[in-house]
Amino acid sequence: MRLIWIAALAALPLSAFAAGGEIFAPPVKTDTTTICTGPMIWDAALERCVRADQSHLSDDDRHDAVRELAYAGAYDRALAVLARFDDPGDVRALTYRGFVARMTGDMPAAMDYYRAALAADPDYHPARSYMAQGLLAAGDRAGARTELREIRARGGRETWAAFSLAQALRSNSGYAY
Predict the structure, then answer these.
(1) Cα distance between residue 106 and residue 79, in whole Å
(2) What whole-number distance in Å separates Cα of residue 172 and Cα of residue 177?
(3) To 5 degrees, how large is the angle CA 123–CA 4–CA 99?
(4) What is d(CA 150, CA 63) in angstroms, rounded to the nearest whole number?
(5) pTM across the whole model
(6) DSSP code of 50?
(7) CA angle at residue 118 from 97 to 130, to 5 degrees?
(8) Is the dihedral of CA 38, 40, 41, 44 positive or negative?
(9) Could you give the CA distance from residue 132 to residue 143 in angstroms, rounded to a whole number?
(10) Which of 15, 53, 101, 133 gets the highest tally of CB atoms within 10 A of its CB?
């Protein structure tokens, strides 16, 4: 499966990975996942693990750590970092709360978080893609297709969110990223 993903990645133009200023290729593993524990994230400037609620960290820093932790399957740690967002209503935080809920089997909570993210920003493609992958996993293929159409209609045709959802629909299985 990883080889298929890498081949698909290589076949796309670089612009396919950008949507709303974010990159949707898997995150690079850092010391956040290899050294830090609990709600700690790696601070490259200080060259050590720091609490995720440190005032010098931004929600962008926390988001990067959450992506990395979620990709690594460290869901409890991802939730601990999400709890330290300055803005708990941040669309990225809501989306990743949904992602973690979905990956840990709480589909109703996942859908609630995805809906909240989309209420905050209806054009946030990752929330639509992750929600649709949850719909697909629950057997709602039509709902997943509807979300893919929405992503494309909202300017996300050439994004990783659209690509991964289209692949999930073709293979009838969801991608985590």
Answers:
(1) 14
(2) 15
(3) 40
(4) 24
(5) 0.82
(6) E
(7) 55
(8) negative
(9) 7
(10) 133
Q: Give the rounded percent of residues in the chain with a pLDDT score beyond 90.
A: 76
- 8 A C-beta contact, residue 125 and residue 105: no
Q: How confident is the model at residue 23 (pLDDT cuts 50, 70, 90)?
A: low
Distance CA 48, CA 50 (A): 6
Distance between CA atoms of residues 168 and 166, nearest Å: 5
Q: Cα(74)–Cα(144) distance, rounded to whole angstroms?
A: 26
Facing residues of 48 across strands? 43
- The encoded tokens of residue 121 equal 């920003």
Q: How far apart are CA 8 and CA 171, in angstroms?
A: 14
Q: How do residues 145-154 score in pLDDT, each as one tens digit?
A: 999 999 999 9
